[in-house]
Design goal:
This protein is an alpha/beta fold. Helix content is about 25%, strand content about 25%. It is built from 8 helices and 16 strands. Strands 7-5-2-9-1-10-13-16 form an 8-stranded parallel sheet, sandwiched between helices. The chain has a 4-stranded mixed sheet with strand order 11-12-14-15. It has a two-stranded antiparallel sheet with strand order 3-4. Helix 3 crosses helix 4. It is globular and about 60 Å long. The relative contact order is 0.17. Bound molecules: inosinic acid (IMP) and magnesium ion. The site of magnesium ion has 5 residues, from loops.
């Protein structure tokens, strides 16, 4: 039995700096001097995700491997994930080449395999229409639920398979974001898995064990891939294009330019309540400050603020009034710290 689980969840359409939060938490020392967490685990998705993690001032990118490995914590790819063996092995090599202990990464025996056929189908039939990442995610989950899928335990070497029981403390690393959730996103402009914190229980613990939910938000909205709420006309807005450039809004996985819009505060409030976020981190405040324009949508109006402080105070006031589970709000102006 575990003591507790903390969950990191994205409160928008992915790319809200979950990797940064996970890495910061994984690096946190317990009062014993050792790491606070015994495990860092992913519960959903595959290498459609792209996480940017900074270690000692150096930038690393991962797609499937949980970020705990950067801090010497055992890292588990959970049974709810899907895994493309060659891409996974390439990521392990990347870790080893950079001096990290890749043997800390283990794959749940029931994790499903993404085959080359899945990738081909995704690229040919889905990527153009839905703007998927083309990583074979939907076809792999389709096979899983049709019960024709292939399991990691039948394909990967035994040395990569996780054969322990969970114990102690677990940090659950979300992938994608709430509005890409298969049940709560704008179907079919979603991913094929559960991005909400209850999905984390699939790693192997009951819901009562969730202690904190860290909600990752950004001070403006972005979307990579198709979504009618992010029309192509956003690419014609000079100010938003400037914001995109200042924020480096290109996909870690696909390199595609992300569509950028002002924060929709009502959607953020819904996401906080749906996820049960207790600790909110609003990132990229430095980017909006550099832009020098402080705007957000609230109740269908575009509101203008004089400075970052006024804008953050407004967000804090509305979130505090509408979200009863919130206990802490942080505004981050650093790509490395929360
Ligand atoms: P899929 O997960 O590759 O099937 O893509 C479905 C949708 O989710 C597309 O709009 C993708 O751009 C989006 N998506 C999937 N993973 C991520 C991510 O990690 N960050 C941002 N968007 C993502
Ligand atoms: Mg990402």
């Amino acid at each position: 039995m575990i003591n507790f689980a903390d969950v990191v969840v994205g409160l928008a359409w992915g790319d809200e700096a979950k990797g940064k939060i996970t890495a910061q938490l994984a690096a946190t020392r317990a009062h014993t001097g050792g790491p606070l967490y015994d495990f860092v685990a992913r519960w959903a998705g595959g290498n459609n995700a792209g996480h940017t993690v900074w270690v000692d001032g150096e930038k690393f990118k991962t797609h499937l491997v949980p970020s705990g490995v950067f801090y010497g914590v055992k890292s588990i790819v959970g049974p709810g994930c899907v895994l493309h063996p060659e891409s996974f092995k390439a990521e392990l090599d990347y870790l080893s080449d950079n001096g990290f202990d890749a043997s800390l990464v283990k794959v749940s025996p029931n994790c499903h395999i993404v085959t080359d056929e899945h990738i081909q189908f995704d690229k040919e039939k889905l990527a153009g229409k839905l703007g998927t990442t083309g990583r074979g995610i939907a076809p792999s989950y389709s096979a899983k639920f049709a019960r024709t899928g292939v399991l990691a335990k039948d394909v990967l070497p035994q040395s990569m398979i996780w054969d322990e029981n969970l114990f102690g403390t677990v940090l659950c690393e979300g992938a994608q974001g709430i509005w890409l959730d298969i049940d709560h996103g704008l179907y079919p402009y979603v991913t094929s898995s559960t991005t909400l914190p209850y999905g984390a229980c699939s790693i192997g613990f009951p819901p009562q064990k969730i202690r904190r939910v860290w909600g990752a938000a950004k001070i403006y909205d972005t979307k990579s891939g198709e979504d009618p709420r992010f029309p192509d006309t956003l690419f014609e807005n000079e100010l938003l294009l400037k914001l995109a450039d200042l924020g480096g809004e290109y996909g870690v996985t696909t390199g595609r330019r992300r569509k950028v819009n002002w924060l929709n505060l009502n959607m953020l409030i819904s996401a906080i309540n749906l996820s049960g976020t207790t600790n909110l981190v609003v990132s990229k405040c430095d980017v909006i400050k550099e832009l020098g324009e402080f705007r957000l949508f609230y109740n269908d109006d575009l509101l203008f603020f004089n400075n970052l402080e006024d804008m953050c105070n407004f967000i804090t006031a509305k979130v505090t009034a509408s979200c009863e589970m919130i206990s802490e709000i942080r505004y981050s102006s650093s790509p490395q710290e929360i």
